[in-house]
Design a protein that fits this description.
26% of the residues are buried. The chain has helices spanning 4-29, 35-56, 66-87, 94-128. The protein is mostly helical and 129 residues long. The longest helix is centred in the last third of the chain and has 35 residues, at 94-128. The protein starts with a helix and ends with a helix. It contains four helices and no strands.
Amino acid sequence: MSSPSRLWIPAAIADVLLILVFAAIGRDAHARGDIISGAFATAWPFLTGAAIAWVVIRAWRAPLAAWPSGVCIWIVAVLVGMLLRAVTGQTVVLPFVLVALISLGVLLLGHRVLATLLLRVSRKRQRRV
């Protein structure tokens, strides 16, 4: 059986990768030069926000919980991300804020819900055997 202490690393890696995917898709959709380095330039404020949330709420205790871990990581990633973008002179307009809020919500909550469902199915199968 998987314990939270074993699941926090894959959950954190998933958060990082999905924030990078969000940034890369946005960069590609707007034809903004190099996707790889550009994705990091776009993603770092959101990654910073997610890291802050992980530490503040101690998300490693329940890394796959959509509530409160997932929701807090999602909201703090967007809030801190937008604040850091504004402070560093990057674009912060309402359409981008809404796209980031929706996209990161789907990604950061979605992987937690999916992982939780897969773990439940796996545990049920193990009990049958």
